[in-house]
Amino acid sequence: MRIKSLELRAKVVVEGLWKGMHRSPYHGFSVEFSEYRAYVQGDDPRYIDWKVLARSDRTYIKKFEDETNLRCQLVIDHSKSMKFGSQGYTKAEYAATLAATLASFLMKQGDAAGLTTFADGIEEHLPPRNRPGHLRRIITELERPAKAAGTSLELSVGQLADLLRKRGMICLITDLLAPVEHLEKQLALLSAMGHDLVLFHLMDRAEIDFTFEKSAHFRDAETGTERFIDPQIARETYLKRLQAHRDTIQAATDRHNVEYHFCPTDRPLEEVLFDFLSARQRKKASKSSAARVAA
Amino acid sequence: MNWLFPLYLAGAAAIIAPILLHLRRRPPQDRVEFSSLLFLDAQTPVPVSKRRLENWLLLLLRCLALILLALMFARPFVQNESTASASPNHATLIVLDRSASMRRADLWKQAVAEAEKQLKAAKLTDRIALAVFDRDLTTVWGFEEDRNTPANRVTAAQSRLADLTPTWSATQLDRALIAAVPSFDSSTATLKKRIHLITDLQEGTHLDALRTIAWPAELTLKVHRIDPATNDNFSMALAAREENGSTDALIRIRLSNTRDSALRDFTLAWKDAPKTDTITAQIPPGASRILTAPPNSTNATTLNLSGDTFDFDNRIFIAPPQPRSVRIHLLGKDATRDEASAPLYYLARALQPTDTLAPLLTADEKLPAQAPDVLFIVGDAPAAGLRDYVERGGFLVTVPSDATLLKAVTGLDLTVAPDTDDEYRMLANVKTEHPLLKPFADPKLRDFTKLRFWKHRLIEFKKPQSSLETLASFDNGHPAILSGRIGKGTLIVLASGWHPGDSQFALSTKFVPLLYGWLAAAGFSHDPAATLLVGDTLPFDATQTHTITDPENKTHTLKPGETFTATGIGLHKVQSPAHTQVVAVNLPPDEGRVLPLEPQKLAEYGIKLASASDTAATSETTDQRLTATDTEQRQNLWWWFLILLLAVLLLETAIAGRSRHSVPAQTA
User: Fold this and answer.
1) Has residue A209 got a pLDDT over 60?
2) Model confidence pLDDT, tens digit, residues B13-64
3) Helices A134-143, A6-20: inter-axial angle, 10-degree rounding
4) What does the alpha-carbon distance between residue A146 and residue A159 come to, in Å, rounded to a whole number?
5) What CATH number does residue A276 fall under?
6) Is the CB of B31 less than 8 angstroms away from the CB of A238?
7) Smallest Cα–Cα separation from B95: which of B123, B135, B137?
């Protein structure tokens, strides 16, 4: 988070991951060079490889460049609670970096990435694409400060279901600091629509451990409500309720086959990304083995 | 412990503020922004007083800081027995101005009366000294004498003052005060030191050197300014004096009128000049004009200004023209003044009489009976007696045709042969820094490239020698001009003559300056007499015995090595065995600027002035107060309180900061 530019931050994480992946089972995943294809009438001449034409006097087309097999929609929570942070950066900054990293990574391997920001409703929506400049647009959108107040997961996810007609992957990045009773319904809806759901649950270390010591008036970032709290007394109850909240989320995600990643914001992004890719690989492997068993 | 400003101690009462603030019951003010209160319930605030109990150290530090601040402002000091004595004795130096400006009206009388008043006002236990100053400080009654015979001080000082009168010197107050500071000897170390300056403190007083010293903190200066009834005054100074050949010298005078002067009309005239030769004009107040002096038909030496009240600066002395005769002889066969090819032809035309020099040129094949001041020899000449002539102080310039003459004069083994080369020669390696080539010291005059030599002699020494120095050489490396001291005299050897048969030298612009440079080296300077002011040393050759007659017709006989400093204005007659010269000495122009300065002006130079109300009969309370101030300033105890205060504040900041940041997440 010491790097100011979000684009550069994302690039650093992706490059690091990319290098680390040379010996990983993901080597060659999706972006492996396919082949040159001979040009036929009707093909877009923009994709002719002119170097090959010059060398061999034959007209070829780089076939793979415009092809993708994954549409990923990154859904970012822009509510005010995301502006909290005790690590020198906020959850919103961590989420933006995670989203930019994912988008950069996916687009680098030829997949399409889109972005949706929400708070008490959908704020911005960029459909998944893999075109030059699209990453730049995503990053610009991520750099825009949040303006909404509270979090309405139910409303936002409901609106998202209307916007995403094509099947694809949805990465929901949020702190989930809102009642999750109705969230389950929306997750079930999206899952039923055939979307592949990934939930990144961000929490600050101070939120996880409730490390406050001094009594003070605590002010809710989203609602503005103030309550006098003595942390020594309130800590135990807080931790119990938080654990229950997390358990509820875990149970809901398990039920609807949602990939759940709990992300404390003091955890390095590379690790989060690597866990995500590992989980994807495991999921893919289990699917293929299930298919083989069925066969 | 004593306090210079004890009222500030009341400020320590301000500690009540932090005590109240620490004890005040108020609701907790700390607010923490948190992401969500979803998992938190409201609680009842804990009483404040219980929470504040842990801040007793901060409270203590804050109270201590306030107390230290109050103590620091109260300026503490420790009074020992010597400083605690009821009424300190004084060491007082009375400095009396006796510069030329004190000649106005009865200023000197007033000044002497003031000095006597100060002497009488001093207690017997005080130490008092008296000094007068103009350019320098002169002690009249010293601290040493005062310690030995304090009862006689008034009588003795009065009698000595009666013998003194104002001089004609400038007012160099800076030098006087700088000299006055060390005059407080060890016997005055424990006393309160002060200087009583009695002066007219005129504008022309020199003060600049005061910037070069650090005025002692324990020494105060009390200025007693003596003011005349009026300051309206014209002053006059010599602005420029131009020599314009044989006619009268052009003399320019700068006239000034004081600001706010009621006078305007003035008259300028030479002494005893007819009315037709006077200038009557006006000069507005505060203005300055430069005028040409009126015609001097009577050859007077004093120019008078009239029309104002004070006449001490209304005269300018101009020394009369005194052309000095110099006997120059050309020894040789070619002694004709009318043929352009002859060397004498050019010497006769170059050596014309001026206001300061009257060359008397003679030519013959023999030396004249009376030895000439400067002797030229071109070609062959009998060598007999020449060495004696030079050794006795003669100045010989020779263009040798063979080695005989040079061998006889110098005693060196050398050869002189004509150069057989047909090529012309030019000068190279000219030592313009040598006194004999002084006219060419200015780089603008050092272009010798237009000077060509058709015929020259090759002068070669068979053994290395050091008595003759090569001042210039030709471009083939042979010497062109040689010079050396032989006995008391000077020998100059030219390898080529100046006449057209040998070179272009006589026709060049270098010839006349070079000749007059040689005359100056022989002791016959062409420069006009310098304008001298009172305090300057008279210019004369200090190696000889001189008799000086000053304007008051007193004669001073000076031995060789002694100098004479002019103390009066007017014409000084300087007589040496060979020469008599009249030198004019004038009043320093700054003395004419008589408008008084404010005594506060001295404070700008770092001098510690006594307050206006501080008279000789200073009250005891004021003395004690001043003593306390001095003691406090010497001890500077408040610095320690300041350092302690800063330390306490730093500690308080550190402790307060640590307690505030004990929960880092809370500020997130």
Assistant:
1) yes
2) 888 888 877 776 556 667 888 888 888 877 666 555 555 455 788 888 888 9
3) 120
4) 19
5) 3.40.50.410
6) no
7) B137
- Calculate the CA dihedral of residues B463, B468, B474, B478 and round it to 10 degrees: -10
* Domains in chain B, number: 5
What values do phi and psi take at B410, rounded to 5? -95, -25
**How many angstroms separate the CA atoms of B640 and B653, rounded?**
20
Could you report the per-residue pLDDT of B449-470, keeping only the tens digit for each?
778 898 889 999 888 888 899 9
Query: Does pLDDT of B480 surpass 90?
Result: yes
Q: How crowded is residue B75: how many other Cβ atoms within 10 Å of its Cβ?
A: 21
Q: Predicted confidence band at B189 (pLDDT cuts at 50, 70, 90)?
A: confident
Contacts with A204 (C-beta within 8 Å, 6 or more apart), sequence order: A84, A85, A86, A87, A91, A264, A265, B35
- Which of B95, B89, B145, B140 shows the shortest CA–CA distance to B115? B95
Q: Tell me what percent of chain B is helix, strand and coil, each rounded to the nearest 5.
A: 30, 25, 45
A294 vs A288: CA distance, rounded Å? 10
Q: Which amino acid is at B23?
A: L
8 Å CB contact between B204 and B165: no
Test A245 with B38 for CB contact under 8 angstroms: yes
Nearest of A175, A148, A199 to residue A84 by alpha carbon: A175
pLDDT of residue B173: 93
Instruction: Kindly state whether B45 is in contact with chain A, defined as any CB-CB distance less than 8 angstroms.
Output: yes
* Same domain as A268, residue A159: yes
What confidence score (pLDDT) does residue B399 get? 92
More confident residue, B620 or A255: A255
Q: B246-305: per-residue pLDDT in tens?
A: 445 678 899 999 988 888 899 999 988 888 888 899 999 989 998 888 888 888 889 999
Q: Which range of residues forms the domain containing residue A215?
A: 68-294
Tokens of B51: 């929470």
Report whether B668 contacts A265 (CB < 8 A): no
Q: Give yes or no for B37 touching A (CB within 8 A).
A: yes
- Give the tokens for residue B578: 């060979």
Local structure of A71: helix, strand or coil: strand
How many domains is chain A built from?
2
Q: Are residues B356 and B391 in the same domain?
A: yes
A38 vs A103: CA distance, rounded Å: 32
Domain that holds residue B623: 90-228+619-631
- Dig out the tokens for B622 from the structure: 């004021």
CB contacts of B39 in chain A (<8 Å) are 237-238, 241-242, 245
For A232, nearest residue in chain B (alpha carbons):
B43
How many angstroms separate the Cα of B234 from the Cα of each of B311, B593, B594?
9, 9, 10
Q: Are B254 and B305 in contact (CB under 8 A)?
A: no
Distance CA B431, CA B473 (A): 9
Task: Check pLDDT > 70 for residue B619.
Answer: no
**ipTM rounded to 2 decimals:** 0.73
Three-state DSSP class for A153?
A: helix
Q: Tell me, yes or no, whether A200 and A184 share the same domain.
A: yes
CB-CB neighbors (< 8 A) of B37 in chain A: 218, 220, 223, 225, 227
Please list every residue in chain A whose beta carbon sits closer than 8 Å to the beta carbon of residue B663.
211-214
Both A130 and A79 in a single domain?
Answer: yes
Average pLDDT, chain B: 85
Which tokens sit at B125?
Answer: 């236990």
**Residues in CB range of A278: below 8 A, 6 or more apart:** none
Specify the DSSP element, H or E, that contains A126. Answer: strand A122-129
